Amino acid sequence: MAKFIVRRLLWMAVVLLVVSAITFLLLRAVPGGPFNTERGVPAPVQRALEEKFNLNAPLHIQYFSYLGDILVPRITGPEYRRTLTTDYLINIDLPILGEDAAFRWMNFGPSLRVRSRTVNMIFTENLPVSIQLGVAALTVAIIIGVPLGIVAALRRNTWVDYSAMGVAIIGVSVSTIVMAPVLQYVFGVLLKVLPVSGWGRIENVILPAFTLGIVQSALLARLTRASLLQVLNEDYIRTARAKGLSERVVVTLHALKNSLIPVVTVIGPLFAALVTGTFVVETFFAVPGMGRYFVTSVNNRDFTVVMGTILLYAAFLVLANLIVDILYAWLDPRIRY
Amino acid sequence: MTTVQNNQQLLPASGVAKIEAHQKGESLWQSAWKRLARNKMAMLGLVIILANILIAIFAPVLAPRHYTDATFSAKNAAPEWVTRVFPSMIPQGQEGGYIQVDNSYALGADGLGRDLLSRILYGSRVSLLVAFIGPIVAIGVGLFIGLAAGYFGGWIDTLLMRIVDIMYAFPTLLFIILLMTFFRFSTAEPDPGSLTYTLGQLDKATGGMALIFVGIGLTSWMQMARLVRGQVLSAREKEYVEAARSMGNRTPGIMFRHILPNILGPLIVAETLTIPTYISYEAFLSFIGLGVQAPLPSWGSMISEGANTIVSYPNQVIFPALALFLIMFAFNFLGDGLRDALDPRMRGVD
Minimum mean pLDDT among B27-41, B87-101, B180-194, B272-286: which range? Predict the structure, then answer.
């Protein structure tokens, strides 16, 4: 198991390296730079800016210096000042080495377009918003989806099953781009019970969380139903019934636990998808998360912000998959790596 | 039990003929079609899709106006029934009324005074094209890679599957935004003769559609490649492949004439179930302005335009959203029905 995890972590590093290289090349191949604004800056100013941000160096040198800033940790002393080019994501004080000593790691660099902001500042301000929304949406998805799937499986081939799965397939067909305006209109404009858009108060979370969560709950419901039906056909369920256990005990103690294993394992990637896939919802409901930042920074050729966001989300996805694999082996003893 | 006896009693003489007729039999596709035809929801989906195809083809005949016809005096107008369906849209003349009632627009007009119904009808062309060309692109790329990986095995397999793994690590939506930005701006530079110029011209001629297909294709072939590889791996060991090889068939012949037809069922099902995803990608791209280029209407861009005025003119966003929902719903039901119909384990069950 330890060997498996180490191998997967190494592979993860390779994946992130390739992802960063492809993103870097694609970004630089797009015509236009961060300083080609519509009003335009005088040529000498543009040259000076490009000089300042190291944009005139050969591409491979730019790439490796960018990677170096992220990967190479630093131990800093009292002389350390937090500036735009020395803003680290991970800062751990090391009182053993002296009063101001600290371990600093992951410098994603300054934003090229938003003055006096670093990519790390954007992360620490906007990512928590996306994660909050993601957690809320995941909660909605689980609370609606799992019970729906269980009921459908237990009442298999009855009207309960058919209507639950009918609702689920409708839910799958509603993309967020459809769900958002409909919920917004019904609850925000027509009934006036929830705010149409905005962020910061608890009632602001409800509509975007349901918009994202309902679609995923439909997927969860179908998965739960299929998984529970499969488990109910297993020999040990027949044994449990043959022992004379009541149906309730068979279902809750024997079947449910095992049938939820596949469900638990999709929650990792699901969460990653929810957090990364919030762009549409953030636009509709004016939520200040990462999604909006990403699109505007691509349009602005804000290289460092785009690179940082893609790397962050890619790391998120790969980690989620790794956690799922480990969780799977832990939940299902038949699986060994 | 009783029915069997009945049958025997009823058909003592024609029994032989009946067995023969049955043996003449149905191909996999015929029996699948029969099973599909019994699935009411799948048929409903099929009818919606066929209706949509007709609408897309005959949009110029069906649409009351052209999708670029803008009448400034009719901007944001709505017919009477819309103001009743959406109670928040109060017609002019009543207290606090602001909606200009104009019954010549069946669903209303947008902020530039263009007919919503006409734009929705024309918009079906974009969604349908994506629904049919998206899978072709994904199958085209995924099939070759999956076939190669599964059939040759060894280092080719390892290399191709590692590439698939890496592609999976890209957050799809972010990657597609990046790719579309790259294509849109790289092909915008006038440099006649080069490949990017040709692609740009093609894209302009199709109103931005060509690049959408490239973008979707580049981000969605991986699932197909994995599926094909898995299917080929199991098919490769089957007797019929061994027989084909012993008869002197060469590798490409075996792959395309023997293995491909045998793994086609699961591929079709998987792609039909992915079509709604392609449709929503296009809507998403048009929503953020990287998809279909104005003035060509797409449901995604209409939703995006309407979203800004949802409080005052909800009809401008709800109607295209309903259209988008309906087509995704239809493809989902058809895909579900196809899966049940083509699943070999279901064969002979009923």
Answer: B180-194
Name the residue type at position A42.
Answer: P
How many CB atoms sit inside 10 A of residue B104's CB?
Answer: 12
B309 contacts on A by Cβ (under 8 Å): none
Peptide bond into B295 cis (omega under 30): yes
| End-to-end alpha carbon distance in chain B | 16
- Min Cα–Cα distance to chain B from A246, Å: 31
Query: In this complex, is the C-beta atom of B324 within 8 Å of any C-beta atom belonging to chain A?
Result: yes
- For residue B311, give how far its alpha carbon lies from the nearest alpha carbon of chain A (Å): 6
A182 contacts B321? CB cut-off 8 A: yes
Q: State residue B108 phi and psi, 5-degree precision.
A: 110, 180
- What phi and psi, each to the nearest 5 degrees, are found at residue A110? -85, 155
Q: For tokens 């599957």, what's the residue?
A: B161
A317 vs B contacts (CB less than 8 Å): 168-169, 171
Cβ distance B306 to A309 less than 8 Å, yes or no, reads no
B33 in A contact zone (CB under 8 Å): no
How many of the other CB atoms lie within 10 Å of CB of B244? Answer: 17
- Which one has a higher pLDDT value, A258 or B52? B52
- Touching check for B155 and chain A: CB below 8 Å? no
Alpha carbons A187 and A184: distance in angstroms, whole number:
6
In this prediction, residue B53 has a pLDDT band, given cuts at 50, 70 and 90, of very high
Tell me which residues of chain A have a pLDDT lower than 70. 37-40, 276-277, 336-337
Per-residue pLDDT at A39: 65
Query: Taking the model in full, what pTM does it have?
Result: 0.84
Pick from B170, B300, B314: CB nearest A185: B314
With CA atoms as reference, the chain B residue closest to A18 would be: B166
Residue A76 backbone phi and psi in degrees, to 5: -110, 150
Kindly state the DSSP code that residue A286 receives in the 8-state scheme.
Answer: T
Q: Is A179 left (phi over 0), alpha (psi -120 to 50) or beta?
A: alpha
Predicted confidence (pLDDT) per residue in A65-95, tens digit: 888 888 888 888 888 888 888 888 888 888 8
Express each pLDDT in B174-209 by its tens digit. Answer: 888 888 888 877 776 656 666 777 777 777 777 778
| Long-range own/partner contacts, residues A78-83 (CB < 8 A, 24 or more apart) | A80/A104
Find chain A residues with C-beta within 8 A of B307's C-beta.
180-181, 283-284
CB distance from B85 to chain A under 8 Å?
no
Residue B243, token pair as written in the block:
């027989």
Tens of pLDDT, residue by residue over B269-317, are 888 888 998 998 899 888 888 888 878 899 999 998 888 888 889 999 9
Task: Collect all residues with Cβ–Cβ distance below 8 Å to B31 and sequence separation of at least 6.
Answer: B347
- All residues of chain A having their beta carbon less than 8 Å from the beta carbon of residue B168 are 317
Convert the pLDDT of each residue in A308-324 to its tens digit.
Answer: 988 888 888 888 888 88
